[in-house]
Design goal:
The complex is a heterodimer. By secondary structure, chain A is an alpha/beta fold. Chain A has an eight-stranded mixed β-sheet with strand order 3-2-1-4-5-6-11-12, sandwiched between helices. By secondary structure, chain B is of the alpha/beta class. Chain B is 35% helix and 12% strand. In chain B, helix 1 crosses helix 2, helix 11 packs across helix 12 and helix 12 packs antiparallel against helix 13. The chains are: A alpha/beta, B alpha/beta. Strand 12 of chain A pairs antiparallel with strand 8 of chain B, so a sheet runs across the interface. Chain A: This is THIF-type NAD/FAD binding fold domain-containing protein. Chain A: It comes from Zygotorulaspora mrakii. Chain A: One of its GO terms (cellular component) is cytoplasm. Chain A: InterPro entries: ThiF/MoeB/HesA (IPR045886), ThiF_NAD_FAD-bd (IPR000594), Ubiquitin-activating_enz (IPR035985).
């Protein structure tokens, strides 16, 4: 519920249009979102979902960068494309449909390849999202965002499985919760999260109800470091590591084998995943052959329900950090679309 | 490569062909429904039918991505279907109507679907579709969102929990004395203004405020007497309204905000432990009465007490005028400016008197109008989970065959709901049906085929005998029409026995519950009740009626509904997310995130409704009926 702090810069029309979300995150967050400039690389299946969610939410401006032409396959997972569009640039095909979605958001379209962009291109954005990129592209993009101190979200899918990597470098979050019997203590609570300040606040109507405003500092590693030495040592209980989804080591293994094309076989992938299980210090027995085979067959495959889940999660986190609400995602999130498991890790 | 090539990598060639032959039903074309439609199209379901009774509203556009400003007031289902044509590759069939309307949507119509997706915003329709799914053994994927929170629950009839297997939370109510005498929070004042005062002054039929049989919340006779007397006195105020006598508005203000408060103050017992209210200053009232300026006030800022009183007077004037013109009761509606301003200012003036912080019009609109926050992202995630799971429910994943229904997972938002920092989604396995569930376990079901001739010639007496003989029930039975909970027959109510079925308004879509009221004599074993759906036969029938084959079975120790509920409570809650909770969280009920502290009022569009309960105990909570969060009794 909204309390105080009304930002008069939102017009009555905007308040009416965004009513159901302003009631969730407040006028101030909505007004802050309106100032943000976001770069979205690739209008993939997940990119399409992110674009829809962000434009609906009333973010300030969104630039979409994508040089791909529409393929028949794209029609199976991207709802801004039509049969007649095959062969056109994706952005040329989708442009008018996206512009029609919410005229209040300034959406621009750039059909150049992201690798052709000079470094300076990126500094005009507040946040970068990359979807369905190769490992090398992800590493490169992350170097750029680190250079300009920008937050980045990298997301993609392998058929029924998907991942989100987040590098916010350093992020300060603030959350209000009802105080429990034990007060929240200031100090480090994990490798990357530290409680920096706890302030108590009384409910103005119910004086016996006490809240805590907890400030936390979150530090992130660059993507390349997450890939090079991930570990779950001491982070999971025995039971949790036995029940870890095989999609976790397999997703990481696919990145290590990024250069391989058609020559990737289930055996090669399995060997790599076994190596990763050892590095993560989780039992190798979690790797079933069905999962390994699926990862080979479904590598880079885009699938709408998976895109909807990942695109929803990324867009909401982007909205949260721009509006300065809620704790952000951890550095790595993996989705197992069979069991609907979606664990988050600091690695 | 072709459009379906990626899909085939996931489901395999032969399952892809099956998918193309499947028909799915999407119930609701709102926040979740628009997302479901898009997902089902891109998953290439052969045929997709979508039902919604609603039209598009401005406040839908922040998330219902198939709708535009130009579509406002047009029907959701048809606009949605038009909007997806450019990427559609399935046969789409939209319906504008209420899914519970059995004339438009008889059971026979539901039969055609291989799977049903719920994208609903109210409990009654959820229960109804659940029942249809149980009648036909059609898998149902139930879902809902509220703000950041959402859940999905696949329901496999006969194998897993149905929608009614878990207890649904009912809305929060307050004792009468809290509302009428001793408010301590602004919600109490809003309840007073909306449910009591507004009804007293602007509606003619005041059954709603019958002071008898209420939960008074007090034994203080002086207070109860005062409350009853006050109700009577308000009818005098109503005469002022109906006489449209502006010169007497002053009396209304003085009665509500001065005299009644002074009377309350005389009951000293009430104020031993509470802060005494302070009657509204006569000066403020008089000043406001002489101030005719209709200054425009920002609905997002907090108005002063003088501004509240001014607005209160203005809203009474507008409502008086309308009552005169329209000559019918005025009902409170959150989007009706006059009614909202009346309720908000009356509530705030009362808050001021009782030393409770006042609220902005924007905030009061949410509470009084039962508005549930709703966002695009949660709906997209939930619809994605629903459609993804449908592949396992239909056993279409070529690498992960579904061996048992209880291997399937339900899912709910964990991170966004502040339940875990280690997982984005919690995914407990489905539970088997609750053996005490009155919908999925403690009843058999069948369809009675009957001709029009049968309906007009067969009497209730004859039907009862046919059923008793066919299913070997004892002498003492009862028959209940479940659509309106109307008792048609039992051992000491046989008045209707001689009536023909048509005279009892039975026909296509009627659902009768046939129960054993006698048992085996030991009071331990009873015939399992049977629920019958009436379907008009398409052709002639021998004897004009055809009863279904149902294996007649027994249930032990019949319980009252009350007992069943407590039985459910005893069941171990399965919170699979517990172990993952970090120190930021706490299982203490009190640590529920701030924004969910109020048991959420009502779903305006709560397809969309989850509360603490579900997150904590993994039980689905329930959207109470629309528009009456703050019931008085």
């Amino acid at each position: 519920m909204i309390t105080g702090d009304v930002d008069s810069s939102l017009s009555a029309d905007e308040i009416a249009l965004y009513d159901r979300q302003i009631r969730l995150w407040g006028m101030a967050a909505q007004a802050r979102m309106r100032l943000a400039r976001v770069l979205l690389i690739n209008l993939s299946s997940i990119g399409t979902e992110i674009c829809k969610n962000i434009v609906l939410s009333g973010l300030g401006s969104l630039c979409i960068l994508d040089s791909h032409a529409v393929t028949e396959e794209d029609l199976g997972s991207q709802f801004y494309l039509s049969k007649q569009d095959v062969g056109l640039k994706r952005l040329d095909a989708a442009k008018n449909r996206i512009l029609d979605l919410n005229p209040r958001v300034n959406v621009t379209f750039d059909v150049q390849d992201f690798s052709s962009k000079p470094l300076a291109y990126f500094k005009d954005f507040d946040l970068v999202i990359g979807t369905q990129l190769t490992k090398n592209e992800m590493v490169r993009l992350n170097e750029i965002t680190r250079h300009f101190n920008l937050p980045i979200y990298l997301t993609g899918s392998n058929g029924l499985f998907g991942y989100i990597f987040v590098d916010l470098i350093e992020f300060h979050a603030e959350e209000q919760k009802i105080k429990s019997a034990k007060a929240t203590a200031v100090g480090r609570i994990s490798d990357s999260v530290e409680v920096t300040e706890v302030v108590e606040k009384k409910d103005e109507e119910k004086p016996n109800k006490v809240y805590e405003i907890v400030k936390t500092k979150h530090t992130y590693k660059p993507f390349v470091e997450v890939l090079s030495k991930p570990t779950l040592k001491n982070k999971l209980s025995r039971r949790q590591s036995k029940r870890l989804s095989p999609s976790v080591p397999l997703t990481l293994a696919l990145f290590s084998l990024d250069e391989m094309q058609d020559e990737l076989t289930p055996q090669i992938l399995k060997n790599k995943a076994l190596e990763i299980c050892e590095r993560l210090e989780v039992p190798t027995t979690i790797l079933s052959n069905e999962y390994v085979e699926q990862f080979v067959v479904q590598r880079n495959v885009e699938f709408t329900p998976i895109s909807a889940i990942l695109g929803g999660a990324v867009a909401q986190d982007v909205i949260n950090i721009l509006g300065k609400r809620q704790t952000p995602l951890k550095s790595t999130t993996i989705l197992d679309g069979i069991t609907l498991d979606m664990p988050m890790f600091e690695f | 490569m072709a459009r379906e090539s990626n899909l085939i990598k996931i489901v395999g060639k032969s399952n892809y062909e099956k998918l193309r032959s499947f028909k799915c039903l999407i119930v609701g074309a709102g926040g979740i429904g628009c997302e479901l439609l898009k997902d089902c199209i891109l998953m290439e379901f052969g045929e997709i039918h979508i039902v919604d009774l609603d039209t598009i509203d401005l406040s839908n556009l922040n998330r219902q991505f198939l709708f535009r400003q130009r579509d406002i007031k047009r029907p959701k289902s048809t606009v949605a279907v038009n909007a997806v044509q450019y990427f559609n590759n399935s046969k789409l069939v939209p319906y504008q109507g209420n899914v519970m309307d059995n004339a438009q949507f008889p059971l026979n119509w539901f039969k055609q679907f291989d799977i049903i997706f719920n994208g609903l915003d109210n409990l009654a329709a959820r229960r109804y579709v659940n029942k249809m799914s149980q009648f036909l053994s059609t898998p149902l994927i139930e879902s809902g969102t509220s703000g950041f929170d959402g859940y999905i629950q696949p329901i496999i009839p006969g194998k897993t929990e149905c929608f009614d297997c878990t207890k649904k939370e009912t809305q929060k109510t307050f004792p009468v004395c809290t509302i009428r005498s001793t408010p301590s929070q602004s919600i109490h004042c809003i309840a007073w203004a909306k449910n009591f005062l507004f009804g007293q002054l602007f509606t003619f039929d005041n059954d709603s405020e019958n002071d008898n049989g209420n939960d008074w919340g007090t034994d203080d006779q002086a207070e109860i007497e005062r409350i009853k007397q006050e109700t009577g006195e308000l009818s005098a105020l109503k005469n002022i309204i109906t006489a449209q006598d502006e010169s007497r508005i002053e009396q209304i203000l003085k009665k509500l905000f001065v005299d009644d408060i002074e009377k309350l103050l005389q009951i000293e017992n009430l104020w031993k432990t509470r802060t005494k209210p302070v009657p509204l200053s006569i000066l403020i009232i008089e000043k406001a009465l002489h101030n005719n300026s209709g200054a425009h006030l920002n609905e997002n800022s907090l108005w002063t007490i003088e501004e509240q009183v001014n607005k209160f007077i203005q809203s009474i004037k507008s409502l008086m005028l309308r009552l005169k013109k329209e000559k019918i009761d005025i009902e409170f509606h959150k989007d009706d400016k006059d009614t909202l301003e009346f309720v908000a200012t009356a509530a705030n003036i009362r808050s001021f008197i009782f030393n409770i912080p006042m609220k902005t019009l924007f905030d009061i609109k949410q509470i009084a109008g039962n508005i549930i926050p709703a966002i695009a992202t949660t709906n997209a995630i939930i619809a994605g989970l629903s459609t993804l799971t449908s592949l396992r429910v239909l056993n279409l994943l070529c690498y992960a065959a579904t061996k048992s229904a209880t291997d399937l997972n339900m899912a709910f938002t964990a991170k966004a709901s502040n339940l875990s920092q280690d997982r984005y989604i919690s995914n407990p396995k489905l539970a088997p049906s609750n053996p005490y569930c009155p919908v999925s376990s403690r009843v058999n079901r069948g369809i009675i085929q009957i001709t029009e001739m049968g309906l007009s010639t067969i009497s209730l007496y004859q039907l009862t005998n046919l059923l008793r003989e066919k299913y070997i029930f004892p002498e003492e039975v009862s028959i209940l029409d479940t659509s309106d909970n109307r008792l048609l027959y039992d051992f000491d109510f046989d008045d209707l026995e001689g009536k023909k079925l048509t005279d009892l308004s039975l026909g296509e879509g009627s659902v009768l519950l046939f129960s054993d009221e006698e048992g085996d004599g030991t009071d331990l074993k009873f015939k399992k009740p049977i629920e019958f759906y009436f379907e008009i036969a398409s052709g002639p029938l021998e004897n004009e009626i055809l009863l279904p084959q149902i294996e007649s079975s027994y249930i032990t120790a019949r319980r009252s509904l009350h007992d069943e509920t407590s039985e459910q409570d005893l069941r171990e809650p399965q919170d699979k997310s517990k172990e993952d909770q970090t120190i930021i969280l706490d299982e203490d009920e009190e640590t529920a995130p701030e924004n969910k502290r109020l048991k959420r009022p009502l779903p305006e569009e709560s397809a969309d409704e989850v509360t603490e309960e579900i997150r904590k105990k993994n039980k689905i909570s329930e959207p109470p009926a629309e528009d009456n969060v703050i019931e008085l009794d």
